[in-house]
Structures are given as C-alpha cells and as structure tokens.
C-alpha cells in the first residue's frame, strides 16, 4: 500500500463509550497498526446541547483502558467551525451550493407529501434554481448543496461491496444552518479531508451518509477515502443490541471485572474472523487484521463466550499482574473498600501465594475478588449458609480433635499440613472429604475454594488455628 494509512475514530460525546464504539475504535486501531499508519481521535462535539465534558472524559478513559492509543492530539470538531463555514461559502461562490429560504412549515409540508407518495427524498428543491432577489425579507437562509439529480452514486465499500444509490432519491443536503453552524455531514467531510484520512471504518448505520458525503467530496473535487461500513452488534437473540444484552459502556465491563486484553480479543472476533483462531495476542491481532474478513451480517454478543475468554486470560496472567488489576478495580466494586483499606505488604504477599489456586476458577476479576475473601476476611469470618450446613455438631467435634495435632506441627506448609490431616482422617476411620469439607467451611466460609492444604498454607498457622477454634467450639 503506497500511501500512509490514516484512520480515525470519531465519537459524539453525548454519553459513555458504547461497546460498539469500542469495537469500531479497535478495528480502526488495528488497521492503522497493521499498515504502519496512524489512528486519529476526533471528538464530534458540534451538538453543543448534548456534548459534555464528562462524556469526553469517559470516551478517552474507555479507550485508554482498552489499550487503544491514538496519534497526535485529540481534534475537537467544534473548534473547526470557521473552517467548515469557509468551505460552505466556497461551494456557494462556485455555484455548487445555494441559499434556501424554505420555512419550517414549507419543509414539514414537503416531508408529509414525500411520505404520502413513498419518496425517500424529502426536500423538493424549492430554492435550488430561484433568483436570490425573491428571498423573503428578514429570513436567514440555510446553505444547501446542489446534489446531482440524475444518474447514481456508487461506493465500493470494503465490507458491503458495491453499493449504489439513485441520485433522484438523495436530497440537497443542508451544509450550513441558518445560524451559521455547520451540519454534521459537512463537518465530517472537511475534517476527514483536512486530517488526511485515507480509510473510514465505521458502523453500517452510516452507509447512506457515505453516499451523501460523497456528493460533498465530488463538489469540492476531493478524493473520497476508502470506506468500510461494519455491521452493528446484535443481541444473542438476533435483535438490536440493548442494555439487557450488553449494550453498556466500556466502563461497565471494567467494573464487571473483565481484563482489557480479553475485551480486545472478544471485540475483534465480533464480526471479523481469521480461520478458526479464537485467541490472539496483540501482535497476532495486528498482523492478521484485514477488512476483507469482516462479515456482512450483524455479530451477536455472547456474555458466556466473553466470560470464558476472560477466564482464559485470567488463568494466563501473572499473579502479580492480577493483584495490580484487582487493586485498580476495588474502587468500582461493592465491598472493594474493605480490601483496599486492609491492603498491606503482608496481605499482598498472602494474596500472591493464594493466586495460583484462586485464578483457576475465576472468570472475572469480581469473581476473583469474591474468591479471595477468605485471605483477607477478619475473624470471626462470615459463614455462608451452604457452608454452615457442613459444620454439623459431628463436624465441629472432628475439627476440635484436629486442632491439637495441627498445633503440634513445627513446620507449617501445604505438604506438612496435608500429612497431618491425612494421618488424622485414617486414625479416625474417616474419608478425607469428611475432614476436608468442614475444614474448608471453617477456614473460608464457603463450600468451594482453592485446594484446602494450600488454603492452610496461605492463611498461616496463627490465622488458620484461630479460625478453626472459632468454629470448633
């Protein structure tokens, strides 16, 4: 590819970074990295009433958490309004655009007539060829593009293939509103041109915008970037993605305990495939990503698949990295402040020792947090109802008999405590489970945990014996 590839992610800051937006940003980032190019970030904040600083911060934070960096400074579309006006005035001076003085009532009547007749073209060209001397006094006009009225507009889309529109069905777009503010259509074209964008990769809800924007490019004599319109993400049932399916902000997935690398891997496989490969390192993703293998059908969001993939990444993560990720998550989850306040070098060492056993079962960092409670819980620990059922009077008697034997142990480690417990169970004519299950309940307050002898080793002699005495009575 001879030209330097320049992609862009251009969100409107009217809310959080939607999961679909995260995928669009990822595809732009991957394509730019694959071709040694650049991905630019442009905040499309021309809707002044709905654009907020909080939303801008959420978008930037979400991209940063996903590990998607952009090149150069963030571009704010609103700050370029004078440039957009300049282009509209140029088109007007060249006779490629015109002043339209149609009133709101006239526009409403045109729309209603078009709907009755089943026409998609809503504006009837009322002021397209009229003499400006006919302009009503005191009315501020809009500037409309003189779009082609015959023939067709064609886009050779990298995902959708060749897409054709009849020009008779496309309106004369408004470029500049009556108050002098540019429309989205004009601003996007001018910004993409001025920023040197070579590839526009975005959702297929913008496909018709692609045809309309091509009219502006053609009128200006500018080359049209390569376009790739990605199908939207649907829910598992095939309907439009909603909050119940997972149409949440990227920040919500962070709070649910997903790892950025797992989210990237999951999102890249939503609508793009590379043979049967499901799991990609970042470098593999960059090396393999192309536009040709993005499907034309909507991808389906699957929470179970995301959880399983996240579990894979958790198991493959370094123990110290998981503790760091857990610490970052604590302010965002219920009960997190308890561990945050208790964190000390000694507790961190205990968590590090427990992590190999903890991470085998956890599918999210929140599950990892819950599973780690036994490490940092203060005595007397809370016992879940299912665990209480294991602590029968007989089981408590077994624990009471076991405590002195564990107290006599000089070297406290997993192998040593295992030897004591097994020998005790044999002498008492008990199956190992009859001792291990109440041990687990007393030490962790749960019915599942890492291997019980590892639990004893992690908790250490003093804490283990203290918890057992609490429950042995």
Could you provide a short overview of the structure?
With about 475 residues, the protein is mainly alpha-helical.
Give short descriptive properties of this protein.
single chain; mainly alpha; Rossmann fold; 4 domains; 3-stranded parallel sheet; 3-stranded antiparallel sheet; 20 helices; elongated
Which second-level CATH architecture of the largest domain applies? Answer: 3-Layer(aba) Sandwich
Query: Structural class of the helix and strand makeup?
Result: mainly alpha
- Roughly how many Å apart are the termini? 76 Å
The average pLDDT score comes to 93
How much strand? Answer: 5-15%
Write down the domain tally: 4
Give the CATH topology of the largest domain.
Rossmann fold
Largest sheet: 3 strands, parallel
The CATH class of the largest domain, by name, is Alpha Beta
CATH superfamily of the largest domain: HUPs
The count of strands amounts to: 12
Give the count of helical stretches.
Answer: 20
So what's the overall shape? elongated
Catalytic activity: tRNA(Glu) + L-glutamate + ATP = L-glutamyl-tRNA(Glu) + AMP + diphosphate
Protein name: Glutamate--tRNA ligase
GO molecular function: ATP binding; glutamate-tRNA ligase activity; tRNA binding; zinc ion binding
Domain Aminoacyl-tRNA synthetase class I anticodon-binding: 339-470
